[in-house]
Design brief:
The chain is mostly beta strands. It is built from no helices and 21 strands. The strands form six sheets. Strands 1-4-7-11-15-19 form a six-stranded parallel β-sheet, with no helix packed on it. The protein has a five-stranded parallel β-sheet with strand order 2-5-9-13-17, with no helix packed on it. Strands 3-6-10 form a three-stranded parallel β-sheet, with no helix packed on it. The chain is globular and about 50 Å long. The mean pLDDT is 96.
C-alpha cells in the first residue's frame, strides 16, 4: 500500500547491489511488494522501479534505468502478478527485463531496443510485441485516462476478465477493490468494479 517515488541508486559500485532497484531492491522472489505504486525512480544499471521481488497488484510507471526501466529480474529473482507497467524507459527493455509473469499489462514503455520486454516470459498478459504463449495478446488496454495518470481500465477494455484466477494470491486489487469482480480476474493492477 505504499507509494515508492523519486528513489535512485548509486552511479558507481557493484551493478547488482548498488546500481539496481531505484524503487525496490529485493534479493528473494519471496519478498512481496503488494498494492504499491512505483513511480519516477531511477537505477543506473537494472530495474528503475524494481530489481527482484514478487510484485502483486502494483502500478509501475515513469521509472528509468539501463535495463528493465520498470522492473528487472536479471540480478535478483522475482515476478509480476497483476501489475500495470507503463511509461517507463531504459536503454534495453523499457518495461520488463527477465522473469516469468502473469495477468499483467506491459505497454507504452520506451527503449533503444526491446521497448516493452526482453528475456521474460508471460501468461495471460497484454503486451507488445505478443510473445505467444497462453492467454497473451497485443492490444490497446484502453486505460480510462493515461494522460492524467489514471490507469484504471475502461469497461470496454480487452483486459477485463482476461486473466487466470489461479495466479491470484490476494483478495484486493490496487485501490482496495475486490480482486476478482467478474468471471475472471482483470489484467493489470486494477479491477473494474462499478460505474464511473
Amino acid at each position: 500500500g505504499f507509494i515508492l517515488a523519486d528513489g535512485a541508486t548509486r552511479g558507481t559500485g557493484d551493478a547488482g547491489t548498488e546500481q539496481s532497484g531505484g524503487g525496490v531492491w529485493a534479493t528473494s522472489a519471496d519478498a512481496l511488494i503488494q498494492g504499491c505504486e512505483l513511480m519516477n525512480n531511477t537505477a543506473n544499471s537494472d530495474g528503475g522501479g524494481a530489481s527482484g521481488g514478487r510484485l502483486e497488484n502494483c502500478l509501475v510507471r515513469g521509472n528509468s534505468s539501463g535495463f528493465g526501466g520498470g522492473a528487472s529480474f536479471y540480478f535478483c529473482p522475482g515476478q509480476l502478478i497483476n501489475c500495470t507497467v507503463v511509461s517507463n524507459s531504459a536503454g534495453d527493455s523499457g518495461g520488463v527485463y527477465g522473469g516469468a509473469h502473469a495477468n499483467s499489462i506491459v505497454q507504452f514503455n520506451q527503449a533503444s531496443s526491446h521497448t516493452n520486454h526482453d528475456a521474460a516470459s508471460f501468461i495471460y498478459s497484454c503486451l507488445s510485441p505478443n510473445p505467444g504463449g497462453t492467454g497473451n495478446f497485443d492490444a490497446n488496454p484502453l486505460f480510462r485516462n493515461a494522460a492524467t495518470g489514471n490507469y484504471r481500465l475502461a469497461y470496454s477494455s480487452p483486459c477485463v476478465d482476461a486473466g487466470d484466477n489461479a495466479q491470484v494470491h490476494s483478495a484486493t486489487a490496487l485501490g482496495g477493490g475486490v480482486r476478482v469482480a467478474g468471471n475472471a480476474v482483470d489484467l493489470g493492477a486494477y479491477e473494474v468494479l462499478f460505474a464511473y
